[in-house]
Amino acid sequence: MDKLSYEIFSILETKFLFGYDDQNPFPPSTPATPLGSALRHSSAGKVCILSIDASDGILAGASLVRLEASIRKQTGDPAARVADFFDLAAGSGAGGVLAAVLFTRGPDGRPILSAAEALRLLGKHHRRLANGAQRKGILDGILCRAGGGLFRRVFGDATLRDTLKPLLIPCYDLATGAPFVFSRADAVEADGYDFLVEEVCAATCAAPAAGAQAVEMRSVDGSTRIRAIGGGLAMGNPTAAAITHVLNNRQEFPAAGRVENLLVVSLGGVEAPIASGKPSAPLSTAELSKIACGAQVDVVDQAVAMAFGDRRMTNYVRIQGYGSTARAPSAAAESSLTERGVESVLFRGRRLSERTNGEKLDAFAAELIKEHERRKRSTTPAVIIKPSMTPSRSSSSTFTTMASTVTSASF
């Protein structure tokens, strides 16, 4: 019954959650090909997706450092970057900042930061920058106005068109009363959807409830106005949005017909249990908000895991921690990778995974490398990224500033 339930929900979510059309959603079942297993892997390869939650960034940053280090070790290439092995990155809140710094083009045409450099840069500046915001965490303080100078030095005049790969970063637009997703694919098509990367990061991390103000911003041509608050409120876990974007974007991802054609790693945060002072005490507004946001993140995780069915152990990897965040950020980051993650199981709550977070990342790095090598031998492209229709707006002076920021030994 467990297997049958997974197969049925896989078909339902493939059909309705991710929205692509299937003339025969219920393929015939045979002893060799059980219900739902007829969705075979395409010879064209797999699209590799990175998704980062709107957490405090500690676990996600450490996970990316581990993933990049594992890729370098397994390939023997000391210059390999996370962006080299993924086809799309989605990030919300602090996760959007991580995605942006790892996938924005630098002066040499490579990502402006490696995973280790990003974590080191943010770790050094978070105390000073956090003084201007009422939030704690490695990444959150950087988005306050006091930290705008650092973001300007890191991103310069770079816009969404200057990212190396497709990028999806959500916010909630108060001007329209609806979620809004900043997308490189849209930016390439029209100036009205192209925004400065530094403003995109500010928009996805804005949190009025934490004392920050909504971010007022306009597209590069001034035609689109956004009044943004944090992406975590609108889309705390952007994994489903990223998968939907890929499966419905046949121009850039012609090989992605089904979830079986995807390799997805979703990076969550380290959760602390909700505990009021007394068992009978009512939950505070902050606790209720935390429960609501956490539940939304878990629902997406469950839906995506069910959609992958039997392939969820290989094609879909979720990194999630559970415990106190009272430790120093560096200690928490190291400890979280040695712990077994928490998996959400439909109708059954949560359970500990069989592997540690670090082991999951090492295994996923091997899958990424395998797909990377397969593409070298294949004549059928799995991904065809849209080129920018106009030259990059980033000036040479901007790239000079970016270079001096990211190459400084002391940051």
From TrEMBL:
<protein>
    <recommendedName>
        <fullName>Patatin</fullName>
        <ecNumber>3.1.1.-</ecNumber>
    </recommendedName>
</protein>
<feature type="domain" description="PNPLA">
    <location>
        <begin position="48"/>
        <end position="243"/>
    </location>
</feature>
<dbReference type="InterPro" id="IPR016035">
    <property type="entry name" value="Acyl_Trfase/lysoPLipase"/>
</dbReference>
<keyword id="KW-0442">Lipid degradation</keyword>
<keyword id="KW-0443">Lipid metabolism</keyword>
<dbReference type="GO" id="GO:0016787">
    <property type="term" value="F:hydrolase activity"/>
</dbReference>
<dbReference type="InterPro" id="IPR002641">
    <property type="entry name" value="PNPLA_dom"/>
</dbReference>
<comment type="function">
    <text>Lipolytic acyl hydrolase (LAH).</text>
</comment>
<comment type="function">
    <text>Possesses non-specific lipolytic acyl hydrolase (LAH) activity. Hydrolyzes phospholipids as well as galactolipids. May play a role in disease resistance.</text>
</comment>
<comment type="similarity">
    <text>Belongs to the patatin family.</text>
</comment>
<feature type="region of interest" description="Disordered">
    <location>
        <begin position="375"/>
        <end position="411"/>
    </location>
</feature>
<keyword id="KW-0378">Hydrolase</keyword>
<feature type="compositionally biased region" description="Low complexity">
    <location>
        <begin position="387"/>
        <end position="411"/>
    </location>
</feature>
<dbReference type="GO" id="GO:0016042">
    <property type="term" value="P:lipid catabolic process"/>
</dbReference>
<dbReference type="Pfam" id="PF01734">
    <property type="entry name" value="Patatin"/>
</dbReference>
